[in-house]
Amino acid sequence: MRRGAVRAGVSDLRSHHTAEGLNAQSLQPLHRHACCANACPYSVRYFDFFNPEWPKPLHLQLNPDVSVREVGVMEKCTFCVQRINATVGEAKAEKRELKDGDIKPACVQSCSARALVFGDLNDPESDVSRLSKSPRGSKLLEDVGTLPKITYLSRQSQT
Amino acid sequence: MQQTSWRFWSLVLFLGAIVAAGVGTWFYQMYMGFGMTGINNPVYWAFYITNFVFWIGISHAGTLISAILRLVNAGWRRPVTRCAEVITVFALMIGAMFPIIHLGRPWLFFWLIPYPSSRLIWPNFRSPLVWDFFAITTYLTGSVLFLLLPMIPDFALVRDRTTGWRHWVYGKLALGWQGTTKQWHRLESAMQIMAIAILPVAVSVHTIVSFDFSMAPVPMWHSTMFGPYFVAGAIFSGIAGLIIAMATLRKLLHLEDYLHPLHFQNLGKLLLMMSLLWGYFVFAERLTVWCGNEPSEMEVFWVTQRGSFAPLCWTMVVCNFVIPFAILSLKKLRTISGCVVASCGVLVGMWLERFLIVVPSLSHKYLPYAWGHYRPRPVEIMITVSTFAAMMLLYTLFAKLVPDHLGVGAQGRRASVSPEHRRGQARARLVDHQSMKAVYGLYAEPHDVQRVFHGLLAAGLPEGRITIISSDPIEE
Fold this sequence. Notes:
The complex is a heterodimer of chains A (159) and B (476). Chain A has 159 residues and is an alpha+beta fold. Chain A is built from 5 helices and 6 strands. Chain A has helices at residues 4-8, 35-39, 81-93, 106-110, 127-132; strands spanning 15-17, 23-25, 46-47, 74-75, 137-138, 152-153. In chain A, the strands form 3 sheets. A two-stranded antiparallel ribbon of chain A has the order 1-2. Chain A has a two-stranded antiparallel sheet with strand order 3-4. Chain A starts with a helix and ends in a 6-residue tail after the last strand. The model of chain A is unreliable at 1-15 and 26-32 (pLDDT under 50). With 476 residues, chain B is mostly helical. Chain B is globular, with a radius of gyration of 24 Å. Residues 403-446 and 469-476 of chain B have low confidence and may be disordered. Chain B contains 16 helices and no strands. Chain B has helices at 6-32, 47-58, 62-71, 78-101, 128-148, 152-161, 164-174, 181-214, 226-252, 261-292, 295-305, 310-328, 336-363, 378-401, 424-430, 446-458. Chains A and B meet through helix 1, helix 2 and strand 3 of A and helix 5 of B.
């Protein structure tokens, strides 16, 4: 997802292309001139229109690894960058290479059908690069020039 | 200038109340959260950005028009220039508020300014918001200079005619102006330089505003013609704003002697030309999209042409093209009131044009499941209304506080035009013989110069103490 949103990302270098190829943005962004949200062809940037309120005990559900965003903040999926960073840090501490499947974003971990796969596209051996080369694969709005990294696999035809 | 009528105060109070209500509404929006507006996902831009583009467009009235007319040396521009330059400065100030009003956390707006901060991060120079910031600050600085430079002699005139705190304030503003030939020449060259420098700045400002849209891969935004399209539209609405302001001043301040029907005729012709240009741009844009038949663009195209936005779209065409064309192309109708009617149409039409650029595209981006709707909420309507009141309020105060508001002088040579002394004869009586070093602000029209000159002689001023400076050849 390169073209639209990243280029329009509002001040404070919130939105950028990380070395790992994530279209990342800081989770404490500030402005919402909303250039980024408008430019996003997928409309997947979300804005906090009000200050969040969590009546007790619902506040206990909040993820301690992610800051709670206040009003006026634009957010988007980061592929759980906090999990990525934690796993990378762990591997470094244990002085080992990252294995395929070490990193699991929350959606991948909790998907009961195991329909989601996350991994390193630069590693030709990884599950994700094997699946992304599948003839069943397609990318959403690739023709807009967003260089999408997500591949959707269509259902295998029974005919 | 020193007497204030109750009419003035009641007008100021009325407009001030609306502006105060607008400011209050903004604070309410900040306190409650941005959700008080009708903005939603995916329509993140609506009234505020429409107002932003609209007011920045109006701001092209002044600087651009007065600079162009100055450079082509159009003699009829003189009564028009300051009137126009003032619109520029105020419209820019109002327009520049909107990106801030539209911030999620407006109290952090200074993060836009690149300064070495403890956060150790700079603004993202790829962000259109940052481009806006730089473009608008440059333009605002330039147009304030462009407005203030020719006012120096006028400030000096008031300085010499007042006492007390007014004398002190206007003395500071006059920057030690004595009216010597050398000073006139310097002012002259400064104005010439500013007139040339402000043109590319004005063009770039609205081009950058258009880049807010055209740089994004959004259907009907992502177009190479947005830059010139926006600049043309800006000049178009700017002229309309100028005509309305001039007609109002002419009526209220009784300036019939200085704002002739000819001025409105000429501005009307200019407006007609811009109307045709605007029509051409819209035609070119729509036809290319229609022929291209790109599915996502066609969605936006049809929703504006015959879908839910169609009433607004056709109102826009009528206001921006049909009405101005019908009125302004007929000489018989190109009167002052004709021009004002056409201009009112253009203002409505251009506001709608901006709205129709912003909202239909956002509500119909590529993926149908992410389409949305927009409906303005009271907060946005109130703030929009209050900006128009703010414009009128600023203009009223300016007309009050700044001398010889509507100069007829060329390039700084301006003459007082308040009703009681707008004739050369009368004016000469008002000049203080003792303190006078030179006569500031002589009339630029040759016959006017002579009228003042004779008036001064008749008032008993020795001929040797009268200095007349004019860019036009003075007979006699």
